[in-house]
Write a structure and sequence with these properties.
With about 525 residues, this protein is an alpha/beta fold. A hairpin with a 2-residue loop joins strand 12 and strand 13. It is elongated.
Length: about 525
Protein backbone atom coordinates (compact mmCIF):
# COMPACT_ATOMS: atom_id res chain seq x y z
CA UNK A 1 0.00 0.00 0.00
CA UNK A 2 1.41 3.42 -1.02
CA UNK A 3 1.97 5.92 1.77
CA UNK A 4 -0.31 8.96 2.07
CA UNK A 5 -0.51 12.13 4.16
CA UNK A 6 -2.87 11.36 7.02
CA UNK A 7 -5.28 13.76 8.74
CA UNK A 8 -7.69 11.20 10.19
CA UNK A 9 -6.65 9.60 13.46
CA UNK A 10 -3.23 8.43 14.55
CA UNK A 11 -0.40 8.20 12.02
CA UNK A 12 1.45 4.95 11.36
CA UNK A 13 4.97 5.04 9.88
CA UNK A 14 4.28 2.06 7.60
CA UNK A 15 1.27 3.77 6.03
CA UNK A 16 1.74 7.52 6.37
CA UNK A 17 4.28 10.22 5.65
CA UNK A 18 5.38 11.46 9.07
CA UNK A 19 7.96 13.65 10.73
CA UNK A 20 10.70 11.94 12.72
CA UNK A 21 9.27 11.48 16.21
CA UNK A 22 12.39 9.99 17.80
CA UNK A 23 13.79 13.25 19.33
CA UNK A 24 10.40 13.94 20.94
CA UNK A 25 10.08 10.39 22.20
CA UNK A 26 13.55 10.52 23.73
CA UNK A 27 12.68 13.76 25.55
CA UNK A 28 9.43 12.32 26.89
CA UNK A 29 11.19 9.09 27.89
CA UNK A 30 13.63 11.09 30.01
CA UNK A 31 10.61 12.41 31.96
CA UNK A 32 9.30 8.86 32.34
CA UNK A 33 12.73 7.67 33.47
CA UNK A 34 12.60 10.33 36.19
CA UNK A 35 9.25 8.98 37.38
CA UNK A 36 7.32 12.10 36.38
CA UNK A 37 3.55 12.37 36.39
CA UNK A 38 2.52 14.88 33.71
CA UNK A 39 -0.07 16.03 31.20
CA UNK A 40 0.34 16.39 27.44
CA UNK A 41 -2.06 19.27 26.94
CA UNK A 42 -2.35 20.42 23.33
CA UNK A 43 -5.06 21.74 21.05
CA UNK A 44 -7.26 19.53 18.89
CA UNK A 45 -5.53 17.46 16.20
CA UNK A 46 -2.05 18.36 17.39
CA UNK A 47 -0.59 14.86 17.22
CA UNK A 48 -1.21 13.80 20.82
CA UNK A 49 -2.61 10.36 20.01
CA UNK A 50 0.07 9.67 17.39
CA UNK A 51 2.72 10.63 19.95
CA UNK A 52 1.22 8.40 22.65
CA UNK A 53 1.01 5.39 20.36
CA UNK A 54 4.61 5.84 19.24
CA UNK A 55 5.66 6.37 22.86
CA UNK A 56 4.00 3.12 23.90
CA UNK A 57 6.16 1.15 21.48
CA UNK A 58 9.24 3.22 22.37
CA UNK A 59 8.94 2.49 26.11
CA UNK A 60 8.02 -1.18 26.01
CA UNK A 61 11.58 -2.46 25.95
CA UNK A 62 12.05 -1.10 29.48
CA UNK A 63 8.57 -0.68 30.97
CA UNK A 64 5.21 -2.34 31.27
CA UNK A 65 3.15 0.28 29.43
CA UNK A 66 -0.60 0.38 29.99
CA UNK A 67 -2.28 2.66 27.45
CA UNK A 68 -5.94 3.54 27.97
CA UNK A 69 -8.36 5.76 26.05
CA UNK A 70 -11.14 7.39 28.06
CA UNK A 71 -13.23 7.71 24.89
CA UNK A 72 -13.89 3.99 25.30
CA UNK A 73 -15.55 4.59 28.66
CA UNK A 74 -19.15 5.72 28.31
CA UNK A 75 -20.47 8.87 29.98
CA UNK A 76 -22.71 6.66 32.13
CA UNK A 77 -19.61 5.14 33.72
CA UNK A 78 -18.55 8.55 35.02
CA UNK A 79 -21.83 9.14 36.86
CA UNK A 80 -20.70 7.51 40.09
CA UNK A 81 -17.72 5.83 41.69
CA UNK A 82 -18.81 2.16 41.48
CA UNK A 83 -19.60 2.43 37.76
CA UNK A 84 -16.29 4.15 37.06
CA UNK A 85 -14.27 1.59 39.03
CA UNK A 86 -15.96 -1.23 37.11
CA UNK A 87 -15.33 0.43 33.71
CA UNK A 88 -11.72 1.33 34.54
CA UNK A 89 -10.95 -2.21 35.71
CA UNK A 90 -12.50 -3.62 32.54
CA UNK A 91 -10.32 -1.37 30.37
CA UNK A 92 -7.22 -2.46 32.31
CA UNK A 93 -8.05 -6.09 31.71
CA UNK A 94 -8.44 -5.42 27.98
CA UNK A 95 -5.28 -3.33 27.61
CA UNK A 96 -2.78 -4.99 29.93
CA UNK A 97 -1.44 -8.55 30.00
CA UNK A 98 0.39 -10.98 32.27
CA UNK A 99 -0.94 -9.72 35.59
CA UNK A 100 1.06 -11.20 38.48
CA UNK A 101 -0.57 -13.22 41.25
CA UNK A 102 -4.33 -12.79 41.58
CA UNK A 103 -4.44 -9.18 40.28
CA UNK A 104 -6.53 -10.16 37.25
CA UNK A 105 -9.08 -11.92 39.50
CA UNK A 106 -9.32 -8.87 41.78
CA UNK A 107 -9.91 -6.58 38.79
CA UNK A 108 -12.53 -8.97 37.40
CA UNK A 109 -14.36 -8.79 40.72
CA UNK A 110 -14.81 -5.04 40.21
CA UNK A 111 -16.19 -5.72 36.73
CA UNK A 112 -18.65 -8.48 37.61
CA UNK A 113 -19.76 -6.89 40.87
CA UNK A 114 -18.45 -9.59 43.21
CA UNK A 115 -15.94 -7.29 44.93
CA UNK A 116 -16.75 -6.37 48.51
CA UNK A 117 -16.99 -2.73 47.44
CA UNK A 118 -16.42 -0.93 44.14
CA UNK A 119 -14.62 2.12 45.44
CA UNK A 120 -11.60 4.08 44.25
CA UNK A 121 -9.90 3.27 47.52
CA UNK A 122 -10.33 -0.46 46.89
CA UNK A 123 -9.25 -0.08 43.24
CA UNK A 124 -6.04 1.71 44.20
CA UNK A 125 -5.24 -0.96 46.80
CA UNK A 126 -5.25 -3.47 43.93
CA UNK A 127 -3.27 -1.14 41.65
CA UNK A 128 -0.65 -0.66 44.37
CA UNK A 129 -0.37 -4.42 44.86
CA UNK A 130 0.05 -4.81 41.08
CA UNK A 131 2.89 -2.26 41.08
CA UNK A 132 4.57 -4.09 43.99
CA UNK A 133 4.35 -7.54 42.38
CA UNK A 134 5.20 -6.50 38.82
CA UNK A 135 8.66 -7.46 37.57
CA UNK A 136 8.68 -4.30 35.44
CA UNK A 137 7.96 -0.70 36.35
CA UNK A 138 4.47 0.23 35.16
CA UNK A 139 3.72 3.37 33.10
CA UNK A 140 0.06 4.38 32.87
CA UNK A 141 -0.99 6.47 29.87
CA UNK A 142 -4.55 7.80 29.43
CA UNK A 143 -5.62 9.55 26.23
CA UNK A 144 -8.70 11.76 25.70
CA UNK A 145 -9.04 12.75 29.32
CA UNK A 146 -11.33 15.62 28.24
CA UNK A 147 -14.08 13.02 28.10
CA UNK A 148 -14.02 12.93 31.90
CA UNK A 149 -13.03 16.40 33.09
CA UNK A 150 -16.54 17.56 34.01
CA UNK A 151 -17.13 14.67 36.39
CA UNK A 152 -16.47 14.61 40.11
CA UNK A 153 -15.49 10.94 39.99
CA UNK A 154 -12.64 11.78 37.61
CA UNK A 155 -11.38 14.47 39.99
CA UNK A 156 -11.47 11.93 42.79
CA UNK A 157 -9.54 9.53 40.55
CA UNK A 158 -6.87 12.21 40.03
CA UNK A 159 -6.73 12.76 43.78
CA UNK A 160 -6.03 9.05 44.28
CA UNK A 161 -3.23 9.17 41.69
CA UNK A 162 -1.81 12.20 43.45
CA UNK A 163 -1.94 10.49 46.86
CA UNK A 164 -0.21 7.39 45.45
CA UNK A 165 2.51 9.54 43.88
CA UNK A 166 3.17 11.40 47.14
CA UNK A 167 3.41 8.14 49.08
CA UNK A 168 5.45 6.16 46.54
CA UNK A 169 8.50 6.08 48.80
CA UNK A 170 6.61 3.86 51.22
CA UNK A 171 4.02 2.17 48.99
CA UNK A 172 4.59 1.07 45.35
CA UNK A 173 2.72 3.08 42.70
CA UNK A 174 2.79 3.62 38.97
CA UNK A 175 6.32 4.63 38.00
CA UNK A 176 4.99 7.36 35.69
CA UNK A 177 1.54 8.58 34.67
CA UNK A 178 0.82 10.47 31.43
CA UNK A 179 -2.55 12.12 30.79
CA UNK A 180 -3.31 13.57 27.35
CA UNK A 181 -6.03 15.94 26.20
CA UNK A 182 -6.85 19.52 25.28
CA UNK A 183 -7.48 20.66 28.83
CA UNK A 184 -4.58 20.87 31.25
CA UNK A 185 -5.97 18.99 34.23
CA UNK A 186 -3.53 20.78 36.53
CA UNK A 187 -5.96 23.69 36.32
CA UNK A 188 -9.06 21.76 37.27
CA UNK A 189 -10.14 22.97 40.68
CA UNK A 190 -11.58 20.59 43.23
CA UNK A 191 -13.44 21.48 46.38
CA UNK A 192 -11.64 20.08 49.36
CA UNK A 193 -14.84 20.05 51.37
CA UNK A 194 -18.31 20.82 49.96
CA UNK A 195 -19.18 22.99 52.94
CA UNK A 196 -16.22 25.30 52.32
CA UNK A 197 -16.63 26.40 48.72
CA UNK A 198 -14.02 29.13 49.00
CA UNK A 199 -11.29 26.55 49.55
CA UNK A 200 -10.12 25.28 46.18
CA UNK A 201 -7.18 23.14 45.18
CA UNK A 202 -5.94 21.14 42.21
CA UNK A 203 -5.95 17.33 42.39
CA UNK A 204 -3.09 17.27 39.86
CA UNK A 205 -0.64 19.82 41.25
CA UNK A 206 2.11 17.18 41.34
CA UNK A 207 2.38 17.21 37.55
CA UNK A 208 5.77 18.05 36.02
CA UNK A 209 5.94 20.72 33.33
CA UNK A 210 5.66 19.24 29.85
CA UNK A 211 7.96 21.34 27.65
CA UNK A 212 8.36 19.02 24.66
CA UNK A 213 7.33 20.86 21.48
CA UNK A 214 4.91 18.77 19.40
CA UNK A 215 4.70 21.31 16.57
CA UNK A 216 6.62 20.64 13.36
CA UNK A 217 9.78 22.65 12.71
CA UNK A 218 11.01 23.50 9.22
CA UNK A 219 13.54 20.68 9.62
CA UNK A 220 10.79 18.22 10.65
CA UNK A 221 8.72 19.13 7.61
CA UNK A 222 11.74 18.87 5.29
CA UNK A 223 12.41 15.34 6.54
CA UNK A 224 8.82 14.30 5.82
CA UNK A 225 8.91 15.87 2.36
CA UNK A 226 12.24 14.19 1.58
CA UNK A 227 10.60 10.82 2.20
CA UNK A 228 7.71 11.79 -0.09
CA UNK A 229 10.11 13.08 -2.75
CA UNK A 230 12.06 9.82 -2.72
CA UNK A 231 8.81 8.04 -3.65
CA UNK A 232 7.40 10.50 -6.20
CA UNK A 233 10.34 12.43 -7.72
CA UNK A 234 8.44 15.70 -8.21
CA UNK A 235 11.55 17.86 -8.33
CA UNK A 236 10.18 20.12 -5.58
CA UNK A 237 12.40 22.58 -3.77
CA UNK A 238 12.15 20.89 -0.36
CA UNK A 239 13.66 23.84 1.48
CA UNK A 240 11.25 26.36 -0.06
CA UNK A 241 8.21 24.12 0.43
CA UNK A 242 9.14 23.38 4.06
CA UNK A 243 9.43 27.09 4.81
CA UNK A 244 6.10 27.86 3.12
CA UNK A 245 4.34 25.16 5.09
CA UNK A 246 5.85 26.39 8.33
CA UNK A 247 5.22 30.09 7.60
CA UNK A 248 1.50 29.51 7.09
CA UNK A 249 0.91 26.95 9.85
CA UNK A 250 3.56 27.66 12.51
CA UNK A 251 4.04 23.89 12.46
CA UNK A 252 0.49 22.96 13.53
CA UNK A 253 0.59 19.22 12.66
CA UNK A 254 -2.93 18.86 11.23
CA UNK A 255 -2.58 21.97 9.05
CA UNK A 256 0.81 20.87 7.68
CA UNK A 257 -0.50 17.41 6.79
CA UNK A 258 -3.74 18.80 5.35
CA UNK A 259 -1.90 21.15 3.00
CA UNK A 260 0.42 18.33 1.90
CA UNK A 261 -2.56 16.06 1.33
CA UNK A 262 -4.25 18.70 -0.82
CA UNK A 263 -1.15 19.23 -2.96
CA UNK A 264 -0.67 15.50 -3.40
CA UNK A 265 -4.26 14.46 -4.03
CA UNK A 266 -6.32 17.48 -5.14
CA UNK A 267 -4.09 20.22 -6.52
CA UNK A 268 -2.17 17.74 -8.68
CA UNK A 269 -4.35 17.16 -11.72
CA UNK A 270 -6.24 20.46 -11.40
CA UNK A 271 -6.44 23.10 -14.13
CA UNK A 272 -3.83 25.20 -12.31
CA UNK A 273 -1.41 22.32 -11.67
CA UNK A 274 -1.91 19.41 -14.07
CA UNK A 275 0.68 17.12 -12.47
CA UNK A 276 2.52 16.46 -9.21
CA UNK A 277 5.56 18.39 -10.41
CA UNK A 278 3.56 21.62 -10.70
CA UNK A 279 1.51 20.89 -7.58
CA UNK A 280 4.60 20.98 -5.36
CA UNK A 281 5.49 24.58 -6.24
CA UNK A 282 4.54 27.89 -4.64
CA UNK A 283 1.61 28.14 -7.07
CA UNK A 284 0.41 24.70 -6.03
CA UNK A 285 0.90 25.53 -2.38
CA UNK A 286 -1.25 28.67 -2.66
CA UNK A 287 -3.99 26.63 -4.35
CA UNK A 288 -3.88 24.18 -1.43
CA UNK A 289 -3.95 27.04 1.08
CA UNK A 290 -7.01 28.48 -0.66
CA UNK A 291 -8.76 25.10 -0.36
CA UNK A 292 -7.83 24.80 3.30
CA UNK A 293 -9.14 28.17 4.45
CA UNK A 294 -12.42 27.66 2.58
CA UNK A 295 -13.32 24.20 3.85
CA UNK A 296 -15.33 23.43 6.95
CA UNK A 297 -13.32 20.72 8.66
CA UNK A 298 -13.70 19.27 12.14
CA UNK A 299 -10.86 21.37 13.53
CA UNK A 300 -12.49 24.62 12.44
CA UNK A 301 -15.85 23.43 13.75
CA UNK A 302 -14.26 22.83 17.14
CA UNK A 303 -12.64 26.29 17.15
CA UNK A 304 -15.78 28.14 16.09
CA UNK A 305 -17.78 26.17 18.63
CA UNK A 306 -15.54 27.57 21.37
CA UNK A 307 -16.29 31.13 20.19
CA UNK A 308 -20.01 30.44 20.46
CA UNK A 309 -19.59 28.93 23.93
CA UNK A 310 -17.28 31.66 25.27
CA UNK A 311 -18.33 35.17 24.10
CA UNK A 312 -15.53 36.84 26.08
CA UNK A 313 -12.98 34.71 24.21
CA UNK A 314 -14.60 35.80 20.95
CA UNK A 315 -14.20 39.43 21.99
CA UNK A 316 -10.48 38.99 22.74
CA UNK A 317 -9.85 37.44 19.32
CA UNK A 318 -11.88 40.12 17.57
CA UNK A 319 -9.75 42.83 19.14
CA UNK A 320 -6.57 41.02 18.11
CA UNK A 321 -7.69 40.76 14.49
CA UNK A 322 -9.40 44.05 13.76
CA UNK A 323 -8.09 46.71 16.11
CA UNK A 324 -4.42 45.78 16.23
CA UNK A 325 -4.55 46.52 19.95
CA UNK A 326 -1.66 44.72 21.68
CA UNK A 327 -2.90 42.22 24.24
CA UNK A 328 -0.29 41.11 26.80
CA UNK A 329 0.09 37.37 27.12
CA UNK A 330 -0.73 36.99 30.79
CA UNK A 331 -0.99 33.28 31.55
CA UNK A 332 -3.07 33.86 34.68
CA UNK A 333 -5.77 35.66 32.68
CA UNK A 334 -8.50 33.07 32.19
CA UNK A 335 -9.34 34.09 28.61
CA UNK A 336 -5.72 34.25 27.52
CA UNK A 337 -5.20 30.83 29.09
CA UNK A 338 -8.32 29.50 27.35
CA UNK A 339 -7.39 30.96 23.95
CA UNK A 340 -3.92 29.40 24.16
CA UNK A 341 -5.26 26.05 25.38
CA UNK A 342 -7.69 25.80 22.46
CA UNK A 343 -4.93 26.72 20.00
CA UNK A 344 -6.15 30.18 18.95
CA UNK A 345 -3.14 32.16 20.15
CA UNK A 346 0.49 31.85 21.12
CA UNK A 347 2.99 33.98 22.97
CA UNK A 348 5.32 36.19 20.95
CA UNK A 349 7.38 38.76 22.82
CA UNK A 350 4.97 38.59 25.77
CA UNK A 351 2.06 39.60 23.52
CA UNK A 352 -0.75 37.35 22.34
CA UNK A 353 -0.86 36.70 18.59
CA UNK A 354 -3.08 34.44 16.49
CA UNK A 355 -1.37 31.03 16.28
CA UNK A 356 -0.88 30.89 12.53
CA UNK A 357 -1.88 32.44 9.21
CA UNK A 358 -4.40 29.72 8.42
CA UNK A 359 -6.33 30.26 11.65
CA UNK A 360 -6.06 34.00 11.15
CA UNK A 361 -7.68 33.87 7.71
CA UNK A 362 -10.36 31.44 8.90
CA UNK A 363 -11.19 33.73 11.84
CA UNK A 364 -11.25 36.83 9.62
CA UNK A 365 -13.65 35.06 7.27
CA UNK A 366 -15.82 33.91 10.16
CA UNK A 367 -16.09 37.34 11.78
CA UNK A 368 -16.71 39.05 8.45
CA UNK A 369 -19.36 36.49 7.48
CA UNK A 370 -21.40 37.51 10.51
CA UNK A 371 -21.75 40.97 8.94
CA UNK A 372 -22.43 40.09 5.29
CA UNK A 373 -26.22 40.36 5.40
CA UNK A 374 -26.23 43.76 7.13
CA UNK A 375 -23.07 45.32 5.68
CA UNK A 376 -23.46 48.09 3.13
CA UNK A 377 -19.73 47.84 2.36
CA UNK A 378 -20.10 44.16 1.47
CA UNK A 379 -23.14 44.94 -0.67
CA UNK A 380 -21.18 47.65 -2.51
CA UNK A 381 -18.32 45.27 -3.26
CA UNK A 382 -20.76 42.62 -4.46
CA UNK A 383 -22.59 45.05 -6.77
CA UNK A 384 -19.42 46.44 -8.35
CA UNK A 385 -17.26 43.30 -8.45
CA UNK A 386 -17.22 42.77 -12.24
CA UNK A 387 -15.59 46.14 -12.98
CA UNK A 388 -12.49 45.23 -10.95
CA UNK A 389 -11.47 42.18 -13.02
CA UNK A 390 -9.74 43.17 -16.26
CA UNK A 391 -8.55 40.36 -18.52
CA UNK A 392 -8.39 37.96 -15.56
CA UNK A 393 -6.28 40.39 -13.53
CA UNK A 394 -7.31 42.28 -10.41
CA UNK A 395 -7.40 46.08 -10.84
CA UNK A 396 -6.46 47.06 -7.31
CA UNK A 397 -6.27 50.77 -8.11
CA UNK A 398 -9.89 50.72 -9.24
CA UNK A 399 -10.83 48.80 -6.07
CA UNK A 400 -9.23 51.53 -3.95
CA UNK A 401 -10.90 54.29 -5.94
CA UNK A 402 -14.33 52.73 -5.52
CA UNK A 403 -13.69 52.00 -1.84
CA UNK A 404 -12.74 55.64 -1.19
CA UNK A 405 -15.91 56.81 -2.92
CA UNK A 406 -18.14 54.33 -1.06
CA UNK A 407 -16.47 54.84 2.32
CA UNK A 408 -16.75 58.63 2.10
CA UNK A 409 -20.41 58.41 1.09
CA UNK A 410 -21.36 56.00 3.87
CA UNK A 411 -19.09 57.05 6.73
CA UNK A 412 -17.55 60.40 5.87
CA UNK A 413 -19.29 62.13 8.76
CA UNK A 414 -18.62 59.43 11.36
CA UNK A 415 -16.54 59.96 14.48
CA UNK A 416 -12.83 59.36 13.84
CA UNK A 417 -12.30 57.20 16.91
CA UNK A 418 -15.02 54.83 15.76
CA UNK A 419 -13.57 54.56 12.27
CA UNK A 420 -10.02 53.86 13.46
CA UNK A 421 -11.23 50.51 14.75
CA UNK A 422 -13.73 49.88 11.94
CA UNK A 423 -11.84 51.05 8.84
CA UNK A 424 -9.83 47.91 8.22
CA UNK A 425 -12.89 45.74 8.74
CA UNK A 426 -14.83 47.80 6.20
CA UNK A 427 -12.12 47.36 3.58
CA UNK A 428 -12.04 43.59 4.09
CA UNK A 429 -15.84 43.49 3.82
CA UNK A 430 -15.62 45.47 0.56
CA UNK A 431 -12.83 43.24 -0.82
CA UNK A 432 -14.28 39.85 0.13
CA UNK A 433 -17.03 39.55 -2.55
CA UNK A 434 -14.65 40.84 -5.24
CA UNK A 435 -12.09 38.06 -4.84
CA UNK A 436 -14.42 35.40 -3.44
CA UNK A 437 -14.23 32.04 -5.19
CA UNK A 438 -11.06 32.89 -7.12
CA UNK A 439 -8.66 34.78 -4.87
CA UNK A 440 -7.64 34.85 -1.26
CA UNK A 441 -5.85 37.12 1.20
CA UNK A 442 -3.69 36.93 4.27
CA UNK A 443 -2.53 39.43 6.86
CA UNK A 444 1.17 39.62 7.68
CA UNK A 445 1.08 39.19 11.48
CA UNK A 446 4.34 41.02 12.16
CA UNK A 447 2.91 44.19 10.59
CA UNK A 448 -0.43 44.28 12.39
CA UNK A 449 -0.72 46.90 15.10
CA UNK A 450 -2.96 49.86 15.87
CA UNK A 451 -1.37 51.95 13.12
CA UNK A 452 -0.60 49.48 10.33
CA UNK A 453 -1.65 46.19 8.76
CA UNK A 454 -0.21 44.70 5.58
CA UNK A 455 -2.61 42.70 3.45
CA UNK A 456 -1.42 40.27 0.77
CA UNK A 457 -4.01 39.44 -1.91
CA UNK A 458 -3.54 36.32 -4.03
CA UNK A 459 -5.49 36.30 -7.29
CA UNK A 460 -4.97 34.10 -10.35
CA UNK A 461 -1.32 33.44 -9.49
CA UNK A 462 -0.52 37.11 -8.81
CA UNK A 463 0.19 38.88 -5.53
CA UNK A 464 -0.82 42.39 -4.49
CA UNK A 465 0.43 44.13 -1.34
CA UNK A 466 -1.78 46.70 0.37
CA UNK A 467 -0.69 48.54 3.50
CA UNK A 468 -3.66 49.65 5.59
CA UNK A 469 -2.65 52.40 7.99
CA UNK A 470 -3.91 55.12 10.27
CA UNK A 471 -2.55 58.52 9.23
CA UNK A 472 -0.40 59.99 12.04
CA UNK A 473 1.35 62.83 10.20
CA UNK A 474 3.74 63.17 7.26
CA UNK A 475 6.75 61.67 9.05
CA UNK A 476 4.79 58.54 9.82
CA UNK A 477 3.46 58.46 6.25
CA UNK A 478 7.00 58.59 4.83
CA UNK A 479 8.12 55.83 7.16
CA UNK A 480 5.17 53.73 6.02
CA UNK A 481 6.14 54.25 2.38
CA UNK A 482 9.67 53.03 3.11
CA UNK A 483 8.31 50.00 4.94
CA UNK A 484 6.06 49.19 2.01
CA UNK A 485 8.92 49.43 -0.52
CA UNK A 486 10.97 47.06 1.64
CA UNK A 487 8.04 44.68 1.71
CA UNK A 488 7.72 44.88 -2.08
CA UNK A 489 11.39 43.91 -2.35
CA UNK A 490 10.66 40.84 -0.24
CA UNK A 491 7.87 39.78 -2.62
CA UNK A 492 9.87 40.82 -5.74
CA UNK A 493 7.17 43.31 -6.77
CA UNK A 494 7.46 46.77 -8.33
CA UNK A 495 4.00 48.10 -7.47
CA UNK A 496 2.32 48.36 -4.09
CA UNK A 497 -0.76 49.97 -2.59
CA UNK A 498 -1.44 52.03 0.50
CA UNK A 499 -4.82 52.78 2.08
CA UNK A 500 -4.61 55.58 4.68
CA UNK A 501 -7.43 56.32 7.09
CA UNK A 502 -6.98 60.04 7.76
CA UNK A 503 -9.27 61.67 10.31
CA UNK A 504 -7.83 65.17 9.88
CA UNK A 505 -10.64 67.56 8.95
CA UNK A 506 -8.44 69.12 6.23
CA UNK A 507 -7.52 65.83 4.56
CA UNK A 508 -7.69 65.47 0.80
CA UNK A 509 -9.42 62.22 -0.06
CA UNK A 510 -8.70 60.37 -3.28
CA UNK A 511 -6.11 58.17 -5.01
CA UNK A 512 -2.70 59.22 -6.31
CA UNK A 513 0.49 57.64 -7.60
CA UNK A 514 3.87 58.00 -5.88
CA UNK A 515 7.19 56.94 -7.41
CA UNK A 516 9.91 55.85 -4.95
CA UNK A 517 13.06 54.71 -6.74
CA UNK A 518 12.04 51.78 -8.93
CA UNK A 519 8.77 51.28 -7.04
CA UNK A 520 5.31 52.69 -7.72
CA UNK A 521 2.92 53.13 -4.81
CA UNK A 522 -0.77 53.80 -5.36
CA UNK A 523 -1.99 55.65 -2.28
CA UNK A 524 -5.64 56.04 -1.37
CA UNK A 525 -6.77 58.39 1.40
CA UNK A 526 -10.15 58.30 3.13
Amino acid sequence: MAKVFNVNGACRPDRHYMVNLKPRLESIKSMVDDGAYFTISKARQYGKTTTLQALTAFLRTEYNVVSLDFQKISSLSFENEPLFVSAFAEELLDCAADFPGDIAEKLESFVDGTARINSLQALFKVLGLWCRLSAERIVLMIDEIDTATNNQVFLDFLAQLRAAYLANDIAPAFHSVILAGVYDVRNIKRKLRPDEEHKMNSPWNIAADFLVDLSFSVRDIAGMLAEYEADHHTGMDIGQMSRLLYDYTAGYPYLVSRLCKFMDERVAGSAECPDKESAWTETGFLEAEKMLVKENNSLYQSLIGKLVSYPELKSVLYDLLFTGKPIPFVATNSYIEMAAMFGFIRNMGDNAIISNRIFETVLYNYFLSEEYSASRMYDAGERERNQFIIGGHLDVRKILEKFVETFDYLYGDQDGTFLEDAGRRYFLLFLKPIINGVGNYSVEPETRNRERMDLVIYYQGEQYIIELKIWRGNAYKERGERQLTDYLDYFHLKKGYMLSFNFNQKKEIGVKEIVLGDKVIIEAVV
